[in-house]
Amino acid sequence: MDNCIFCKIASGEIPAATLYEDDLFRVILDLGPASKGHALILPKNHYANLYEIPDEMVGKAMVLAKKMGTALKEALGCDGLNVVQNNGEAAGQTVFHFHMHLIPRYQDDQVGLSWTPGTLTDKMKAEVLEKVKKALG
Ligand code: AMP
Ligand code: ZN
């Protein structure tokens, strides 16, 4: 992808603060961190989102999230960690190259990743169960 900023960062064409690199992934510090240590896991190949990334790669990305999250906790002494992965503009995705956010959390920080719980009505439950099971085949 010629015009993809994360392709260029992942390949090393554009420099970034790299915490970790192997043949498949680069892990960098987010330039607009939600908290101290906010990191991004970038596959070196271009996949736009979760729907496109191959199973094998997404599995490896999650294993790397565990490794990096454990290192962030040990190094920074964070009290918690959010693993966030946005797909589509409606979900807040702004860079359309698959990535996982690792967001260290600190007691009483002001990072806003919460929502107001709704209600799972019988109607909603029936509709979603029926439609998703159908989609799964
Ligand atoms: P998302 O909203 O899930 O697409 O996340 C994109 C993230 O990439 C945001 O948290 C940005 O702060 C971050 N970001 C954008 N450009 C860069 C860059 N050049 N280097 C590091 N992080 C970046
Ligand atoms: Zn890309």
Describe the structure.
It is a single chain. With 137 residues, the protein is of the alpha+beta class. It has helices spanning 5-11, 55-76, 122-136, and strands at 18-21, 25-29, 39-43, 80-84, 100-105. Strands 1-2-3-5-4 form a five-stranded antiparallel β-sheet. Strand 1 (18-21) and strand 2 (25-29) form a beta hairpin. The chain is globular, with a radius of gyration of 17 Å. The two termini are 33 Å apart. The structure holds adenosine monophosphate and zinc ion. Adenosine monophosphate (AMP) binds at residues 5, 16, 28, 30-32, 40, 86, 92-95.
Residue share in helix: 25-40%
State the end-to-end distance: 33 Å
Q: Radius of gyration, Cα only, in angstroms?
A: 17 Å
Mean pLDDT: 97
For the sheet with most strands, the description reads: 5 strands, antiparallel
One letter per element, helices H and strands E, the order comes to: HEEEHEEH
Helices, by number, come to 3
Overall form? globular
Low-confidence stretches: none
| Order of strands, widest sheet | 1-2-3-5-4
- Beta-strand content: 15-25%
Number of strands: 5
Task: Report the structural category.
Answer: alpha+beta
- Ligand names: adenosine monophosphate, zinc ion
Short description:
Residues 5-112 form the HIT domain. This protein is an alpha+beta fold. It has helices spanning 5-11, 55-76, 122-136; strands at 18-21, 25-29, 39-43, 80-84, 100-105.
